[in-house]
Amino acid sequence: MYRFPIGKFRPLTEVFFENEVPISERFGDVYFSKQGGTEESAYVFFEGNRIQKKWKETNSTDNSSFTIGELGFGTGLNYFISLENWKKETCPPNVSFYSLEKFPLESSTLKIMKNHFPEIPTWEIDLLDSYEKVLKNDKDTSGSNIWTWSVSHPSHKTRFDLHVYFSDVLATLGDWKETIDAWYLDGFSPAKNPEMWTAEVFQKIRNLSREGTSFATFTAAGFVRRNLESVGFQVKKQTGFGRKREMLVGGI
Ligand SMILES: C[S@@+](CC[C@H](N)C(=O)[O-])C[C@H]1O[C@@H](n2cnc3c(N)ncnc32)[C@H](O)[C@@H]1O
What we know:
Blueprint lengths: L14 E4 L2 E4 L4 E2 L6 H11 L3 H7 L7 E7 L5 H12 L5 E7 L6 H10 L8 H13 L8 E7 L6 E7 L3 H7 L4 E6 L13 H9 L1 E9 L4 H9 L3 E6 L6 E6 L1
Parallel strand pairs: 4-5, 4-8, 5-7, 8-9
Antiparallel strand pairs: 1-2, 2-3, 6-7, 9-11, 10-11
Helix pairs in contact: 1-3, 6-7
């Protein structure tokens, strides 16, 4: 088990590792499944939102675009998995990946993540430097701080742009202006972090959605389903990942 002290930046999160999976001391929950982080991310969020199919359907031109909104950036694994899938597309749209994070992880933890997932590029040095720079500049602990990063497609003119808001979920969703095409609802478990799953959060998500917007989440908690339905999402249960019997997917 490794332990990391809270860093000198604002609320950087203390984690410990169990079976190579980071666990938040604050929330007492895992960042991703012990049964396989990359597989969980691909199954629950990328496939749960049928993103590959949607990318193929977007009449791909250099101007076409697709927007993903994530609740809980954490280790960035969902971003890396989506990015890797996008790189394999022959006619990919431009992608904007919006995420938010109130308790950013230390770069020492993210460096360990890189070693856990050698099969895909994750926290390369330039990316880590850029992440650290934004957090170090954040002197005002109440203000929101935005980190951006852009990747060009290897064989096409399109780009994959990341925007991470280092701020609370409600404040951030209030700041976002772009309509989201697919939501990754990845706060910690609803029982351990109910703040990420309130009707108020889902109302803001609804306001940023359009007809055809989808969502996927690892949880099948009853109050999450009810809160999603109360703002107008159609919700379906499907087989969950690993030891989770069920998860939720759906859309407007
Ligand atoms: C399960 S983890 C996300 C895992 C992440 N998607 C990944 O790929 O590693 C949940 C994240 O939500 C963040 N979080 C918890 N409460 C929050 C809040 N009120 N506002 C913003 N972020 C929050 C946590 O710090 C944590 O990084």
